[in-house]
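Why show two proteins at once? Because comparison is the fastest way to build intuition. When a single record is shown, students tend to memorize it. When two are placed side by side, the eye starts asking what differs. So, the first record is below.
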Amino acid sequence: MSEILVLYYSRHGATAELARQLARGIEQLEGMQARLRSAAPVSPTPEAVEPPVPDSGAPYARLEDLQECAGLALGSPTRFGNMAAPLKYFLDSTSALWLQGALVGKPAAVFTSTASMHGGQETTLTSMMLPLLHHGMLLVGLPYSETALHTTRSGGTPYGASHLAGPDSDLPLSEEEKQLARALGTRLARVTRAQLDAGLIKA
């Protein structure tokens, strides 16, 4: 089985649910498996260290997860139109992988959730793309051949999967949001499989 890392930070659970939907889409392709990992919260005290395994949810990500996986789906709630600090903190620790070119040619996709319809979904998605481009990854989005992009009244963008969580972060994923997240996962898996089959990346 070839693995795609689904790495996310989630405060209230909405981004985590999107991650699970992407994982379902990835695993619809035979021979592909999702590896769910989360970003550890950032402490206001720099010396504080989180335990290696959280009380609930996916295990915290390690640099080895990026190295070992053939592709990446990266997710975060929006923070003032940008990715959340814990995810940025983790990405800032990947300089050694950049120096090795460890992620060059690996496909990647992004996903997000926001409290309001115009709360920065697209800018958050593009903010997550920038470090991936520096790593030489191949970005995968959602084409308009996905009909749910034309009918959604909540989340869903050509830049990546998204979710409208509402002001209390308690809205469930709509059917279109689920469909688009799974479609993005499957598309990412197909592109990753093509790169593997061509011998351009290693599992």
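Second record. Ask yourself what differs from the first in the token line.
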Amino acid sequence: MDLAREHGLSPQAVRNYEQAGVLPAAARTAAGYRVYTPVHAQALRAFVALVAGHGHATATAIMRAVNRGAVDEALRLVDDSHCQLVEDRRTVQAVEVALRDLAPVAPERGGTFIGPLAARLGLRPATLRAWEAAGLVRPGRDRRTGYRVYDAADVRDVMLVHQLRRGGHLLAQIAPLITQVRSAGGVAPLESTLRVWRDRLSARGRAMLAGAAELDAFLRVRAAASAGSAAGGPD
């Protein structure tokens, strides 16, 4: 099947896409064989291109919406995905700014307690406790008193959260970034992670452009086919 071969897919995969609503329903011959047209070929090209930029779930939802005639809904899904890309870019920029403005944290002998740390940053101790409850900061405890003790890594996390909160980010948005800082082993290794992140966002943006072009081509082919069918109908 040429339609499958163009994209390195199996004929069954193409049939599955039709069944899932990604492709328009195909007509059948008298013998029951599916007949795929240039409309189906362009639909598959659009879907494959959309997957690269928007992901499989969103691409599927977009194509399903178009195939049932809900073009406005499909375009809204595209817009929502672009908004998410914009938000992801802003997050990267916020982290870069936070890292740039983050002062080096010198190891403190015995660590620091919540009161002095909060006072240093102009925060209330309750704020630090709320960040701890959200999993953003994980201070240890003094064995004798049970008080929270923030070592250098904890102070770094607090300062990074503080910077991001000042930038308007929600705790739920900050949590995965703090996790990345910890898994990277600190702030410095995270800079290379951010470069990779930026490159991925750029690639995603380019893929979205390619997907938009193929989707537009599909809408045009689909409209032309519908107009041709209407013109060939009975008077």
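One difference worth noting in the second protein: The chain has a mean pLDDT of 86.
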